[in-house]
Amino acid sequence: MMARENYRENSTEHKNSSILVGSITLFSVLLIILSFPFSLFACFRMVQEYERAVLFRLGRIKEGGPVGPGIFFIIPCMDQIVVTDLRTVSFDVPPQEVLTKDSVTVSVDAVVYYRISSPLAAVCNVVDYAKSSKLLASTTLRTMLGTKSLSEILSDRETIAKDILALLDTATDPWGIQVERVEVKDVRLPFQLQRAMAAEAEAAREARAKVIAAEGEQKASRALKEASDIISGSPSALQLRYLQTLTSISAEKNSTIVFPLPIDMISHLMSK
Questions:
Q1: What angle do CA 98, 130, 97 make, to 5 degrees?
Q2: What's the whole-model pTM score?
Q3: Cβ–Cβ under 8 Å, residues 77 and 152
Q4: Which of 2, 96, 175, 230 has a CA positioned 20 to 30 A from the CA of residue 258?
């Protein structure tokens, strides 16, 4: 009995609403006819190729989904349209003060690119999809960077951007929004931390320079030892080296020539 009464009440409400809709439609048509041709300016609307219009007729979405592009007909007293832009939109995420995993405070900002993939969901499922997307991007950026260390943020921006993109795209999918790209623009460090990192990098460079110089001295000493072994194995090699030294000195047009004399020859003359 209760089910029958509910069915009768629903059918009565449906009939009443149908009668009301029919009356409003008839009144709107009569108004259009009486105000013709001025009513043509209010009855025809146009949307661009990159736009779609969500049409509400007496508060309900018109069957067939979004309208456009081109010209379409509306009833002024019954229809209300909401135009959405399907082009890619970008916005800057304000700088976020983030405490990293290793307890370092940094300021990070980013840029997000998105577009509307479902105009019906963007109009009906969220009040302001642009503002909601910006707030969600700010909180997601802060949450994601809070799980990373400073070295990971500075050296692995691409992976962080991909992770933020996946989280944003999953969260905005019910809103009819597709996030296409996320880029981390700048990471600002405190001035004291910048000085400490610069001092650390300078000390590391000096240490590497000293190691390289020591390795060079070691290689040079080995080469000199090998050269001395070769010269000591042949007595004439030392004389040839003397002559080569004299040739290089004379090529410079010097007025004074220092000629090295073997100690053995001097000692032999002094003994005589």
A1: 10
A2: 0.63
A3: no
A4: 230
Locate 119 and state its tokens: 């105009």
Distance CA 49, CA 136 (A): 29
Given a contact cutoff of 8 angstroms between Cβ atoms, the answer to whether 48 and 67 are in contact is no
- Kindly report whether the peptide bond that precedes residue 260 is cis, defined as omega within 30 degrees of 0: no
Query: Is 255 exposed, middle or buried (CB count within 10 Å of its CB: 0-12, 13-18, 19+)?
Result: exposed
Q: How far apart are CA 205 and CA 200, in angstroms?
A: 9
Half-sphere exposure of 95 (CA within 13 A, CB side): 8
Q: How far is CA 250 from CA 130, 222, 238, 239, 246, in A?
A: 84, 30, 19, 17, 6
pLDDT band at 41 (very low <50, low <70, confident <90, very high): low
**Would strands 79-85 and 70-73 be described as parallel, antiparallel, or unpaired?**
unpaired
Write the DSSP symbol of residue 65. Answer: S
The mean pLDDT of the chain is 78
Confidence of residue 61 (pLDDT cuts 50, 70, 90): confident
Other C-beta atoms closer than 10 Å to the C-beta of 169 total 15
Phi, psi torsion values for 69, nearest 5 degrees: -80, 165
CA dihedral of 127, 128, 132, 135, whole degrees rounded to 10:
-130
Q: Using CA atoms, how far apart are residues 209 and 116, in angstroms rounded to an integer? A: 56
| Residue owning tokens 């994601």 | 144
Q: Which residues contact 132 (CB under 8 A, 6 or more apart)?
A: 126, 175
